[in-house]
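input
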Amino acid sequence: MQTSQNLDNHLLSVALSAAVPLWILELKEKGGPTREDWNWLKEAENILTNTGEAILYRTKKGDTARAFNAVAKAIAILSFVPGGIEIFGSHWESESNTA
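output
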């Protein structure tokens, strides 16, 4: 029997498996994360602190999309850290296009 939380986690993983590669591609097209991208992670922290529950409990104010995109973009940025990032049962690891 699949619980509601298991289904939510599965749906989140599926959605992230589509969104994170798009963010990674965007970052790779500019050679990898910039200083602004790394600094943006602080903003992502604020977004998720204030609206993170919207990922699980949809809102009508746009907070769900904003929080989801913050998670996806943060994972994409962190995937460029040596060794990548393990989150929600997935491993993400990217390399910059710079030599």
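quick obs: The two ends are 49 Å apart (CA to CA).
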